[in-house]
Description:
Strands 1-2-3 form a three-stranded antiparallel β-sheet. The protein is of the alpha+beta class.
Amino acid sequence: MGTKTLDQLNDDITLKAVEFLKKKEGALGPCGRCGGTDWTATALRLLGTPVSERQNTSVPTKTVPMLLLACTQCGLTYMHNLIVLGLEK
């Protein structure tokens, strides 16, 4: 077994997050806007600096692991923090 690529790691965490949300009642149900039930999902990392430190250029940028869900019918988008979900540290 070789080392996983970034795409494979992204797919793994996306699948884990979607399965986690499916287990939570109502967390991955019909779209709140159109009622559609077909979602696209991808894991990504947002880059950011704490708001209180924006003027300080010496503060390192942090990454926040997120799951992005988008309704394929109307485009409504939800984002879930993977740390809050307990899927990343």
